[in-house]
Amino acid sequence: DTGVSQNPRHKITKRGQNVTFRCDPISEHNRLYWYRQTLGQGPEFLTYFQNEAQLEKSRLLSDRFSAERPKGSFSTLEIQRTEQGDSAMYLCASSKDRGDQPQHFGDGTRLSIL
Amino acid sequence: AQTVTQSQPEMSVQEAETVTLSCTYDTSENNYYLFWYKQPPSRQMILVIRQEAYKQQNATENRFSVNFQKAAKSFSLKISDSQLGDTAMYFCAFMKPPGGGNKLTFGTGTQLKVEL
């Protein structure tokens, strides 16, 4: 069990640029989640995948955000035309697909918009 | 929609003492799961303990235990024999039963500092 891996750890970019984050879940985990955490707040749910299918998206996920999980393995989260308000920690988590299984989190990607 | 409230933004405790962190939640569901996660500074979120709502017995995990009061919708975390390594942000989280997407709803967190 190598844990959930996220890359990059930090991303600094100018407003208006596009960014992409990657998440590699624990290998036997079918479910993959993305959360966003702003300073002083708890993580907020963005979206989740069961294998390669994206089954739920939060209203927080505007049309500038897109997430994919090709082949049900790693996932990417892309933000287009970044805005100041996108500055946050983006957390990925994974779990087995039995309903009560806990989620295991990665270290997160911290995004800073200049 | 579910909400989770942690009313203690910061707490401190002396090493080896006991501390209790509070959490309340609001839901119309009867079956659900509750979790406490720990997030040390600049490190990943780690599961501390979990409780199934259909179980009356409070969960215990070594020095960590919960006081689950379903009727009051309260889910507090007790840390016994506090250690310096317990210093972290602690988040209470709610998860609906299967069919609800298994997404977690988090509180705003309690920053715990363990002091010598």
Shape of chain A: globular
Tell me about the largest β-sheet of chain B.
6 strands, mixed
Strand content of chain B: over 45%
Query: How large is the radius of gyration of chain A?
Result: 13 Å
Shape of chain B: globular
Structural class of chain A comes to mainly beta
- How many whole angstroms does the radius of gyration of chain B measure? 14 Å
User: Which regions of chain A are unreliable across 5 or more consecutive residues at pLDDT < 50?
Assistant: none
Count, helices of chain A: 0
Number of strands of chain B: 12
Which pair of protein chains has the largest interface, and what are the residue counts? Answer: A-B, 27 and 25 residues
Bin the strand percentage of chain A. over 45%
Structural class of chain B: mainly beta
Largest sheet of chain A: 7 strands, mixed
What integer is the average pLDDT of chain A?
A: 93
Ranges of chain B where pLDDT stays below 50 over 5 or more residues in a row are none
Number of strands of chain A: 11
- How many H/I helices of chain B? 0
Determine the N-to-C terminus distance of chain B.
41 Å
Helix-strand topology string of chain B: EEEEEEEEEEEE
Please give the share of residues in helix of chain A: under 10%
